[in-house]
Amino acid sequence: MHLAHRRDKPFVHGYLCPVMPASSDRIGRTALRSRRVLRITAAWVAVGVVAAFVETAVLREYGVPAGVADELGQHILRALLGGLLGGGIYIFVLRDRLRHLAYLPAVGIMAVLVLIALAAVHTAWNALADPHRPNDLLSLTFLGQYLYWALLMAATMLAVRLTDQYGSGALNYLAGRYDKPHQELRVFMFLDMRSSTAIAEKLGHVRYFELLNDVYADITDPLVYTGGEVYQYVGDEVSVSWPLRKGLKDHRCIRCFFGIQRKLAERADHYRQRFGLVPQFKAGFHYGEVTTGEVGLVKKERIFSGDVVNTAARIQNSCNTYGVEILLSKELLDVLRLPEHLYEARPIGEIALRGKRDEVSLWTLSPVDRSTVAKRLPAKSEAQ
Predict the structure, then answer these.
(1) Whole-angstrom Cα distance, residue 286 to residue 321?
(2) Which class for 319: exposed (0-12), middle (13-18), buried (19 or more C-beta within 10 A)?
(3) Separation of alpha carbons 376 and 265, rounded Å
(4) From CA 364, how far away is CA 334, in angstroms rounded?
(5) Where are the CATH 3.30.70.1230 domain residues in the chain?
(6) What value, to the nearest 5°, has the Cα angle with vertex 351 and ends 353 and 17?
(7) Cα separation values, 71 from 45, 67, 82, 148, 293, Å
(8) C-alpha count within 13 angstroms, C-beta hemisphere, residue 335
(9) Interatomic CA distance for residues 308 and 246, integer angstroms
């Protein structure tokens, strides 16, 4: 079977890298982070409302006059400012730096930062309100405020990490949506490292594990920002899924793979210096109906049952055979409706996959070089 000639692609630090517009990814990343900040702010406001009622009740219990409206106003204002500023700084600045640490060390660092920030704000506020007021940073009042904000920040960090752990399905897990199996349409991507056996033999088990750790850390953002849900890590293979509507929207499932390629290309120098190689991945895509449910009591796990899962895995296994980085089924390609100015789709042919009675029509994708497109447009207009 004839395989269409592969497009030439530019290199980044000597690593094969697809030319993809990063602006849409940056916009999506900023939008996702902004939504997280707003959710954090909403949660802090809810906590502030509860704290206002509790504080009012305690004050009245001890005979101190306190109005609910005044307490609510103060707590909501503080929660809004704290959520937007504190949550924004954490999500946009600190999260990427702290998420490589275990939770407790990260909370310890955050507790110190909260103490410094709160002490600075407290001192500045007192100086403006009453310059002659003595410094009360060692008072029980300040200690109570510090514990409140530090615990609130620690709970926020835990919630963010749990969301990262369970992906966008965290709410479904807590709500018990998959306690009973049900059928749904999903897109699956099976991602596998090229030459993994040879790399493992070259590096040894410990160094190979460190390589996987670095790789999985680097591919996290493309997964998260395209709404992908990690189904399984199996050695050097990662299986990712999207609910059909989410995976098709703005061709997120395809953007995820090319985003991973771009991220690894940007980190090529790091991998060469530390491991003497740059990891490369191949991927297979398919979609269809699966039965989704949770199994187990001690360690609950969501599983997908259906032919689409096996088919996606076998499509990925065919990448080496046809010398391509990405393969997808014609069924998925038809529903994706990929923009022609971003991707070039080329047929591989009708392929017999192991375990499948009927042949599957496979296609590969190449990102379109925008500079080439730009050169073609003036030439076309001159010809007209």
Answers:
(1) 18
(2) buried
(3) 27
(4) 13
(5) 181-383
(6) 95
(7) 13, 6, 16, 16, 45
(8) 19
(9) 17
Between the alpha carbon of residue 150 and those of residues 42, 55, 263, the distances in Å are 17, 18, 34
pLDDT digits (tens), the chain, 384 positions: 333 333 334 333 333 444 444 555 677 678 888 989 999 999 999 999 999 998 888 888 887 787 888 888 989 999 999 999 999 999 999 988 888 888 999 999 999 999 999 999 888 887 787 777 777 788 888 899 999 999 999 999 998 887 776 655 566 666 666 778 889 999 999 999 999 999 999 999 999 999 999 999 899 888 888 889 888 888 889 999 999 999 999 999 999 999 999 999 999 999 999 999 999 999 999 999 999 988 877 777 788 999 999 999 999 999 999 999 999 999 999 999 998 888 999 999 888 877 667 788 999 998 887 655 455 444 444 444
H or E, element range at 366: strand 360-367
Backbone angles phi, psi at 361, to 5 degrees: -80, 120
Residue 174 and residue 162 in contact, taking contact as beta carbons nearer than 8 Å? no
Angle between helices 268-275 and 205-218 (to 10 degrees): 170
Task: Please write down the long-range contacts of 317-321, taking CB distance under 8 Å and 24 or more positions apart.
Answer: 317/284, 317/354, 318/284, 318/351, 318/353, 318/362, 319/192, 319/282, 319/283, 319/284, 320/194, 320/282
59 HSE (CA, 13 A, CB side):
13
**Homologous superfamily of the 181-383 domain (CATH):** Nucleotide cyclase, GGDEF domain (3.30.70.1230)
State how far the Cα of 221 lies from the Cα of 261, in Å rounded to an integer.
12
**At residue 363, what is the residue type?**
W
- Considering only CA atoms, give the Rg of the chain: 26
Quickly count: other Cβ atoms within 10 Å of residue 18's Cβ: 22
